[in-house]
């Protein structure tokens, strides 16, 4: 059945369905066709296996991409040796491991017994903070919806007062065998997912999942000195594990919002400061407000050129989880005046009349080289 029907049709979703739609449709159909709800119904059991097979394939991005391109042929003969990706939790290339386990035993990773309950999935949350917040650190709240342990059944997935029974499909072993060419291959049982037992009566609150989606508000401490790409781990705040297994972790990924004055390179702050050509010629001082609220005074040496960088030690970003601060780099940009009064023009013309070329050695040297090249061409 599963080799003939399209996986998307089995799950009753479109081909562009996202992960949330896939998961929701799978849960609904799995509850409808679960063997425990349809005892003795071979068609329902086959339907349930096909739905599980389809979901195991489409929930994995790599398997889904292969299926979208090659269809069921992606899992025949060449890529996985025969059975579909849903013949267990490990389709695709992991079938090679199953083959070696069948021949050589547990030395290749498992031995074919019941699977231990897997911890819940890790989650990612992207948080944007300002450069000021990255400088000082902050307390923040994160609001997410995450799967948590179902309280009525305490994560077991079974209706309170009921329990579990041995899986009929695998006989309690957690593994099923299938012939693939010359090999007998063991895979995780698609009915009990390797547990060896199934729930007698699913919990009405979580529909047998042992976990429910719950909105949560979490407190996060952002330490001083964080940068784009900094990862903060909240242990045990990820998805709840299936059937009471431990939860995963939540990872907060930091992104620094662009600042109006400062750029950043690690612990170094960089700013570009325009100055008048008179200040560049005569020298002077400028004042810059820092992220710490203090004013930094920068001395401009006489004769400074555009592009020159000045460095102030110890007034940059804090070192993350360390001591001290980085540097502040000031890049000078000499601004040529565009709006001059008549008197200012007159003064500049007087200055120009007194120029000998020695005032600007770079300009004089450049034009001397131009003159030499030109004379060489005309000789």
Describe the fold and architecture.
This protein is α+β, with helices and mostly antiparallel strands. It folds into 4 domains: 1-116, DnaJ domain (Helix Hairpins), CATH 1.10.287.110; 118-163 and 200-258, Urease metallochaperone UreE, N-terminal domain (HSP40/DNAj peptide-binding domain, Sandwich); 263-338, Urease metallochaperone UreE, N-terminal domain (HSP40/DNAj peptide-binding domain), CATH 2.60.260.20; 344-379. Helix content is 26%, strand content 25%. The protein has 9 helices and 15 strands. The chain has a 4-stranded mixed beta sheet with strand order 10-11-15-14. The protein has a 3-stranded mixed beta sheet with strand order 1-9-8. Strand 10 and strand 11 form a beta hairpin. Helix 2 packs antiparallel against helix 3 (42-58). The longest helix has 18 residues, at 361-378. The termini are far apart. Residues 77-112 have low confidence and may be disordered.
Give the oligomer, counting copies of the same chain as homo and different chains as hetero: single chain
Computed CA radius of gyration, to the nearest angstrom:
35 Å
Strand count, sense and closure of the main sheet? 4 strands, mixed
In terms of DSSP E residues, the strand content is 25-35%
The CATH top-level class label of the largest domain: Mainly Alpha
Number of domains: 4
Q: Structural class, please? A: alpha+beta
* Helix content class: 25-40%
**Judging by the overall fold, what is the CATH architecture of the largest domain?**
Orthogonal Bundle
In whole angstroms, the N-to-C terminal distance is 92 Å
What is the overall silhouette?
Answer: elongated
Q: What is the H/E string?
A: HHHHHEHEEEEEEEEEEHEEEEHH
Contiguous runs where pLDDT drops below 50 for at least 5 residues:
77-112
CATH fold annotation of the largest domain: Helix Hairpins
Q: Strands of the biggest beta sheet: in what spatial order?
A: 10-11-15-14
The CATH superfamily of the largest domain appears as DnaJ domain
Beta-strand segment tally? 15
The overall average pLDDT, rounded, is: 82
| Count of separate DSSP helical elements | 9
């Amino acid at each position: 059945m599963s080799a003939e029907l399209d996986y998307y049709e089995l799950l009753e979703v479109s081909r562009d369905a996202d992960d949330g739609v896939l998961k929701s449709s799978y849960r609904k159909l799995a509850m409808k066709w679960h063997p425990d709800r349809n005892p003795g119904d071979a068609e329902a059991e086959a339907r349930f296996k096909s739905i599980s097979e389809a979901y195991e394939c489409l929930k994995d991005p790599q398997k889904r991409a292969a299926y979208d391109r090659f269809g069921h042929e992606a899992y025949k003969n060449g890529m996985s040796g025969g059975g579909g990706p849903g013949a267990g939790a490990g389709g695709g290339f992991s079938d090679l491991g199953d083959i070696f386990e069948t021949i050589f035993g547990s030395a290749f990773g498992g031995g074919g017994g019941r699977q231990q309950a897997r911890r819940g999935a890790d989650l990612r949350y992207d948080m944007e903070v300002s450069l000021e917040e990255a400088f000082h650190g902050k307390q923040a709240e994160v609001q997410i919806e995450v799967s948590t342990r179902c309280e009525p059944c305490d994560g077991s997935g079974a209706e309170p007062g009921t329990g579990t029974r041995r899986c009929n499909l695998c006989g309690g072993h957690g593994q099923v065998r299938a012939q693939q060419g010359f090999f007998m291959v063991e895979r995780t049982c698609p009915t009990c997912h390797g547990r060896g037992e199934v729930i007698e009566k699913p919990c009405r609150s979580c529909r047998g999942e042992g976990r429910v989606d719950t909105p949560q508000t979490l407190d996060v401490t952002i330490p001083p000195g964080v940068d784009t790409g900094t990862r903060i781990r909240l242990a045990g705040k990820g998805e709840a594990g299936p059937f009471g297994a431990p939860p995963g972790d939540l990872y907060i990924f930091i992104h620094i919002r662009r600042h109006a004055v400062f750029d950043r390179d690690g612990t170094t702050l960089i700013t570009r400061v325009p100055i008048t050509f008179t200040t560049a010629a005569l020298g002077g001082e400028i004042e810059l407000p820092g992220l710490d609220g203090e004013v930094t005074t920068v001395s401009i040496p006489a004769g400074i050129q555009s592009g020159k960088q000045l460095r102030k030690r110890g007034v940059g970003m804090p070192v993350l989880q360390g001591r001290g601060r980085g540097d502040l780099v000031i890049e000078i940009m000499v601004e040529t005046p565009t709006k001059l009064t008549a008197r200012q023009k007159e003064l500049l013309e007087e200055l120009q009349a007194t120029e000998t070329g020695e005032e600007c050695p770079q300009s004089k040297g450049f034009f001397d080289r131009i003159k030499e090249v030109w004379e060489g061409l005309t000789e």
